[in-house]
Amino acid sequence: MTVSIALGRGRDGADVPLDLTELLATRLLVQGNSGSGKSHLLRRLLEQTAQLVQQAIIDPEGDFVTLAEKFGHLVIDVSEQTEATLRAAGERARIHRASVVLNLESVDAEMQLRAAGAFLNGMFDVPRAHWYPVLVVVDEAQLFAPVTGGDTSDEARRLSLGAMTNLMCRGRKRGLAGIIATQRLAKLAKNVAAEASNFLMGRTFLDIDMARAADLLGMERRAAESFRDLQRGQFMALGPALSRRPLSVTIGKVETASHATGPALLPFEAGIAEEMRDLILEPVAEMTPRPRERRTPPPDLLAQLDAYSAERAMPMAEAAPRAEADPAKLWELVSAVASEPEADYRPIATLYQDFQLRARIEGLGRDVLDMTAFRLLLATVRSGISAEHAESEEWRQAEAIAQSLPEDVQGVALLLARAALGGLPCPDDEALARAYGTHSLGRARRQLAYLEERHVIVLREEGQGRRVAFIGVGWQTA
User: Fold this and answer.
1) Which domain of life is it from (predicted)?
2) Would you list the DSSP string of 273-332?
3) 170 in a structural domain
4) Parallel, antiparallel, or unpaired for β 243-251 and 74-77?
5) Are 33 and 167 contained in the same domain?
6) pTM of the predicted protein model
7) 287 CB contacts (<8 Å, ≥6 apart)?
8) Exposure check for the chain: N or C terminus, fewer CB within 10 A?
9) Are residues 204 and 63 located together in one domain of the fold?
10) Domain holding 167: CATH number?
């Protein structure tokens, strides 16, 4: 069944339809400079489809919260939520089929990336039974899928860019139809923009953006300058959901409006300069700052556990020296940390803090394992070897080889060593990705080539899979 909406009118005055069924399968990219009418276009599209399909809107400026008043969208204020809550909210929104506006206007750029990434990942990871169709609209997409890093941390940028890539590259089979709008194509990651099959190109002035827009629409380079002549709310449309040939469309009217209105030109009356001088340059009373009181900050949870343990152990301190930590207990604690949900993809510092907390609860010192020792033991646990075999001389050789490598590759090396030691098949790409702490299978496969370059393994591709030999110990995978 085909369902269409009227997006606007063409130059001949006829309605320009947008095939919603086709749009769900082919995605949409909207581009235009500030003031070209992108937000108006998105609002028109959202209003016309609000009663037809579920919607999720990533709103960095709070422009679309007014949709809730007329169409019943749930507005989520990010400043009041944690990343875990937002990830769960994305999953529950799909399960309960709720249209949502993720309002990001009250948080800084770092939190905007983290919040958008967490929410989109929650929508993406929902079980197959809830893969209902959803229009996912991302305004100012260049903020969430930038070509290069900015003032935000690499971790936040990777989280957001990974979520946007999943939305545009792999979202179709999960029912997610990405609609992304950007001021500048040159600032938007190419692997995100390239997945759209429908385009609406608005007014653009920079040569590089006009050239890219013309390429996407299949127009000649000399025709690219026509994008400078487009009026506000006028776009060139192309794609299976819009038109098979570039088509000019003027976006129709909308029923709701943004809270944020543009500047209005009012009559200006200049004041008398001398009178203004007294108002503007009136002396400001400088207050003498009060001396700051030194207050002892409240102890954190780990410090409280330290204090409690010290008080409990004080009567016994003189009776017997503190015993060494039991290796079996350390193995148990690290195994518990490794078994937490999503532990494979969490930063090592977060996992180490979790381990320290568990160690203090068991009455062990916070420094029972330093970060380097914890990382190595965690990689050993994740490799799948048993605690008994981990004490063997053979495994000590494998650990010595792994310790000569960069820390982020040690987990991959020990996973391969475990498979080779037991004569098991070579781990698949997904297992290698978990060991490396990434969702990218290609990045995980590249670690095999790196280990071969470092003369740690010998890799041989065969018809039925891979075979890996561990150099120096003579082990081979099946």
Assistant:
1) Bacteria
2) HHHHHHHHTPPPPPPPPPPPPP-PPPP-HHHHHHHHHHHHHHHHHTTSPPPPPPHHHHHH
3) yes
4) unpaired
5) yes
6) 0.56
7) none
8) N
9) yes
10) 3.40.50.300
